[in-house]
Specification:
heterodimer; A: mainly beta; Immunoglobulin-like; 2 domains; 10-stranded antiparallel beta sheet; 4-stranded mixed beta sheet; 21 strands; 5% helix; 47% strand; B: mainly beta; Porin; two-stranded antiparallel ribbon; 1 helix; 16 strands; 61% strand
């Protein structure tokens, strides 16, 4: 009888179970190709990404509109934008979500043919870490577009908890899950992880609008400790 | 962090301590116990002492424990975790139902403890002894896909204790109270520790022991091991806790009985915040 009790105790005590993770995030439509300054005659390809309830990218039919077709015209078949005449107009993208219409937009200034297109702050995004646990997490950062991808510039006030085991920094579209997240720093990297102060991460083959969150995790134990929403500067 | 380490610490303190009598066995006598110990935890005390959640982790340990009186003043002590299983639950999406992160488990032996207890003073109702317990790094200090499923801390430590105990009658029932203080010298960059504990028990109807325990571990924070220089290891340093526990032990037949224990940290740092329990069968040869 004692052996049976012991074996039952053993069996019930050591089985791999399931943790149900609340990983729901709002659906999102995000315009990827957002050039804010064009010259008359420029033609650009419009791109938008739809992210579902768990932050996964999915194919969706996107409808494009221009607030002023005299300034910018949109070919809905080729999804290309033509800067037709000087002025300012809004590019609007729409798609149907699970229960509502989702949209995103950005403003375009069309300049005369010979005028120089400036590098605008719109090519930079920003964010600020907020702690979501008792572990320390704070600091500002900027995300800048480069010729090969992006750079993340951590500010001097950046803090990650140095007692956090298995620390890792991720770009993600869902702060509640590491599925489809991109790790950019971790405790088990060759050079270790960065925990405090200014630092620059260079990431190739990545667009400025590919991810909407920068998050700090304890990777082995699946603990979210800090998150930052990446927004337009 | 070395979650396993603190799990092992609990295991050692709460399981090993069950039999940490200040009364030596005397020559030829012994106490032996097989124990199944389990802890399933979905939250932990952080380095600041707050409680945060984590992916559910479990630890199951099947161990052998023995005390044997080699002389009238000296006991040999052995704790042997024959089988230790560390596992983490599968993470499943509530939204879509798919697996986000596969669960994982690792099995191995744990860290063995070998000790000596020496009787300094023993009168009818009072006993004072010293204990030296050596923690041997026989477990795995790097296991699983990310190294975090350790069954041992990878270091050789020496815990030196001064123990005192007294027996008395409580409402005509045999009773005892004992206490200990100890210093744990750790190696491999781990901080040394101060240990303190008190235990009291009452035997009812000549067969049933009811025991209560309080154990405290405080780190001296003098170690060099940190998450930054641990070269990827997440084995925790500077674990601290205050834990309470209770045990019920029942003599089934002469010298043989079963025991059930429960224990939990009520405060701590870098330690799980869920209770543990164990089921054991003991043989007490007097």
């Amino acid at each position: 009888m004692n052996k049976i009790m012991m074996l039952l105790f053993l069996a019930l005590s050591s089985c791999i179970g399931e943790d149900i993770v609340n990983d729901s995030v709002p659906e999102q439509l995000r315009i990827v190709s957002n050039l804010h300054q064009l010259r008359v005659g420029d033609v650009v390809k419009l791109e938008a990404s739809y992210f579902n309830r768990v932050g996964e990218k999915e194919d969706k039919r996107v409808l494009w509109e221009s607030s002023d077709s005299i300034v910018i015209s949109i070919d809905t078949i080729t999804t290309s934008l033509t800067a037709a005449s000087e002025g300012i107009a809004t590019v609007i993208a729409k798609t149907s979500g699970m229960s509502e219409v989702l949209s995103d937009q950005y403003h375009v200034a069309v300049l005369p043919e010979k005028e120089e297109v400036l590098v605008l702050p719109e090519l930079t995004k920003v964010g600020t870490f907020a702690k979501v646990s008792s572990y320390a997490s704070a600091g500002d950062f900027e995300v800048k577009k480069t010729s090969s991808g992006i750079q993340i510039h951590l500010a001097s006030n950046y803090v990650a908890d140095q007692s956090l085991p298995g620390f890792a920094l991720f770009l993600t579209n869902n702060p509640n899950s590491l599925a489809n997240a991109l790790q950019i720093d971790a405790y088990d990297d060759e050079d270790g992880a960065h925990y405090k102060g200014s630092f620059i991460y260079s990431i190739d083959d990545l667009g400025l609008n590919d991810y909407s969150y920068l998050v700090q995790w304890c990777r082995p134990y699946s603990i979210l400790v800090g998150q930052a929403l990446i927004i337009d500067k | 962090m070395k979650y396993l380490q603190f799990l092992l610490t609990i295991s050692l303190v709460l399981t090993f301590q069950i039999n940490y009598a200040q009364w030596v066995k005397e020559k030829g006598n012994g106490y032996y116990k097989i124990t199944a110990w389990t802890l399933v935890a979905d939250k932990h005390y952080t380095s600041s002492g707050a409680i945060d959640s984590n992916a559910t982790r479990g630890n199951f340990t099947f161990s052998l424990y023995g005390e044997y009186g080699v002389t009238n003043k000296i006991d040999v002590l052995l704790y042997f975790p024959l089988f230790t299983r560390i596992y983490q639950n599968t993470q499943v999406s509530k939204t879509k139902g798919n697996v986000l992160q596969e669960g994982q488990a690792f099995n191995a032996i744990g860290d063995v403890d070998l000790g000596l207890r020496y009787s300094l003073f023993k009168k009818k109702y009072l006993a004072v002894s010293t204990t030296l317990k050596m923690g041997l790094p026989t477990g795995r200090d790097n296991a699983g896909s990310d190294g975090s499923y350790q069954t041992g801390d990878g270091e050789f430590n020496q815990l030196f204790q001064l123990d005192i105990g007294t027996s008395y009658q409580l409402y005509s029932e045999p009773s005892y109270t004992k206490a200990y203080v100890g210093f744990n010298n750790r190696t491999q960059g781990f901080s040394d520790e101060f240990h303190l504990g008190v235990e009291t028990g009452v035997k009812f109807w000549r067969k049933l022991w009811g025991v209560g325990r309080l154990n405290i571990v405080k780190s001296f924070s003098n170690g060099t091991l940190s998450v930054q220089n641990a070269q990827g290891s997440i084995f925790a340093n500077n674990v601290e806790y205050v834990s309470i526990g209770t045990e019920v032990a029942y003599d089934i037949v002469h010298n043989i009985g079963v025991s059930l224990t429960w224990a939990s940290a009520i405060s701590g740092r870098i330690i799980y915040a869920n209770p543990s329990c164990s089921l054991g069968v003991f043989l007490d040869l007097q």
